[in-house]
Amino acid sequence: MTPIWKPLQEPFVKVNLDAAFKATLHHSYSRFVIRNSRGLVMSSRTVLNKFVSDPFTTEAIACLQALNLSREIGFSHVQIEGDSQIMIVKINQVLPNYSEIGTSIKEIKIKASFFQHISFYHVDRQANMVAHMIAKERILLPEDRFWMEELPATVKAFLARDLSGLIPWI
């Protein structure tokens, strides 16, 4: 069975994040989607990041940006999901991280401490397709984008797939 997106109980929101890395330009593209307990989109965003050195840094930057947006909107109970297992494992480790993304991991942990409850989980790409497809599409967009309670039209089919198991009338 293909892993699918699963909702959380209120008051939690789920933040799915993904990133794309363009090595030739040293650019990365962050993408995250915040959804409520019914699976509906609360907010989504794409960001172009310049002067990025590697894919691991790309994922860490996306996580930091997702935490910032979640806090700005006012969410206090957040679950972060991403398909970068290396990053999620490093965030969840108790010991200090001395890897190339250690500084970013430390900053993520500091920002995470501002939430009443927060958790970080690795998910299969199939359960993260909405964020993944927007990250992929982001490469085609010339500027950052921010949406409240909506998504780009090209990604709505993936949202409908996620919601089909949650809402009987879809």
From TrEMBL:
Domain of life: Eukaryota
One MF term in the entry's GO annotations: nucleic acid binding
InterPro entries in alphabetical order: RNase_H-like_dom_plant, RNase_H-like_EbsB-rel, RNaseH-like_sf, RNaseH_domain, RNaseH_sf
RNase H type-1 domain span: 16-137
PANTHER family: BNAC02G40300D PROTEIN (PTHR47074), RNASE H TYPE-1 DOMAIN-CONTAINING PROTEIN (PTHR47074:SF61)
Protein name: RNase H type-1 domain-containing protein
Organism field: Gossypium aridum
Native organism taxonomy: Eukaryota, Viridiplantae, Streptophyta, Embryophyta, Tracheophyta
